[in-house]
Design goal:
The protein has 403 residues and is α+β, with helices and mostly antiparallel strands. Helices cover 23% and strands 27% of the residues. It contains ten helices and 18 strands. It is elongated and about 90 Å long. The N and C termini lie far apart (78 Å).
């Protein structure tokens, strides 16, 4: 089978390795044509490869307190998966049987110099991109199920044979099963299938569904995985870094403040000052900036916040109270603000966001006690009901009336 490069020139999905690099081509060509673009199977990537680690070595390492290991067993008849996290013991292996199980041990390159030496073949990549060498041992039928990795990985066959199936379908579904601990795909239809021998290596870019199963006998696979932090990790760590290095006297300021037309509004001028005060905020579009800052600024410094009703009111029950003359009191611990983007208005209350009309948001922020109008729009009715049930508004019966 062949894959099609964006230039529309066909690229082979299978090549032969070379003595210099385990890619059957130059490093520059591999990075240009395959890296984070297409999978590639390299037959005989490592000639006459001999696994530097034995299955017994790997099992022993899995029993170490500080090693990261998992034992995964598959009950084919009941379609059940069992995952045990290390450190493991000899008794754990005594219960495995001779089929349908696999052992995964991460960071083996930190424990074994010969395994670490394999990384020398990947020196054309930035060393800080390489995460670890994970080794998996499996008996026939053993694997972890069809799944997707969010990072580049090189899968080097070290012992025995492993049957690999992958999907290069760009529309392949990637929903996870909810009945197993592993992040397995609900549906998997392979477009390519191979049987790998020792020394063969499969490169997979991020997001390619794949499934590897030990075939015929004991199997060991060396997985050279790349470090690929999520944007959430990057932003979270940068935020922690900035928070640690900024001083207490560096604060949000507004020396050129003008009288507010609507006291509860987070207006465009305020958003501009937020961007100036928070370096990270410059990367946010206006909708995201509004959503973050509105939630942030309406949270109290302390944990004080109104409690949601233990028994939520129905819309009918609330409307009966309001039609009977009840007013709405803003809870003393309720902190509100609102913002608009184009025709959209959002009310923020103690870190939560609610769709609102500009009129209702203005009233809720400006008045501690308000008398609802005789008629509500759908969005206003849903807003009031949500705020009452979440504890931010308290219905008050009119004076002189009794239950």
């Amino acid at each position: 089978m062949t894959l099609t490069h964006p230039s529309r020139k066909p690229l082979p999905i299978e090549v032969r390795g070379t003595a210099k690099l385990p890619f059957g081509m130059s490093a520059a060509q591999f990075l240009r044509d395959y890296w984070q673009k297409h999978p590639l199977l390299i037959r005989n990537a490592f000639s006459d490869f001999q696994s530097p680690v034995t299955p017994e070595d790997l099992a022993g390492l899995a029993c170490e307190e500080s090693a990261l290991s998992r034992l995964i067993q598959h009950d084919e008849d009941r379609e059940r998966w069992r995952v045990k996290t290390g450190p493991l013991s000899e008794s754990d292996f005594a219960k495995t049987g001779d089929a349908n199980w696999t052992l995964l041990v991460q960071d083996v390159d930190k424990w074994d110099m010969d395994v670490a030496a394999l990384l020398d073949h990947f020196r054309f990549l930035p060393s800080w991109r390489v995460d670890d060498v994970m080794i998996s041992y499996a008996e026939p039928g053993g694997g972890v199920g069809a799944h997707v990795d969010q990072y580049d990985v090189f899968l080097l066959q070290g012992l025995g044979q492993r049957y690999w199936a992958i999907s290069t379908d760009p529309n392949a579904p990637k929903d996870f099963r909810s009945d197993v601990e592993l992040k397995q795909l609900q549906h998997f239809e392979p477009t390519h299938k191979w049987l790998l021998d020792p020394g063969d290596m499969l490169y997979l870019p991020p997001g390619i569904p794949h499934d590897g199963v030990a075939f015929g006998g004991p199997c060991m696979t060396y997985s050279v995985g790349m470090r690929a932090p999520s944007q959430g990790e990057l932003v979270g760590d940068l935020a922690d870094y900035l928070a640690e290095h900024l001083t207490e006297d560096q604060r949000f300021t507004d020396p050129n403040l003008v009288p507010a037309k609507h006291p509860g509004e987070i207006d465009k001028a305020a958003l501009t000052r937020v961007r100036e005060a928070v370096p990270l905020a410059t990367a946010l579009d206006e909708v995201t900036l509004i959503d973050w800052f509105g939630r942030f600024i309406t949270r109290y410094r302390s944990a004080q916040t109104p409690l949601a009703l233990s028994k939520p009111l129905t819309e009918a029950a609330l409307m009966k109270q309001l039609n009977g003359g009840a007013s709405l009191l803003r809870h003393p611990w309720s902190r509100m603000a609102w913002a608009r983007h184009r025709s959209r208005c959002t009310l923020f209350a103690n870190g939560h966001a609610y769709p609102a009309t500009m009129e209702s948001a203005t009233q809720l922020c400006d008045q501690r006690m308000l008398s609802p109008p005789h008629t509500f729009s759908t969005i206003e009715r849903e807003l009031i009901l949500a705020l009452v049930n979440d504890g931010y508004l308290i219905p008050r019966k009119p004076r002189g009336r009794h239950a």
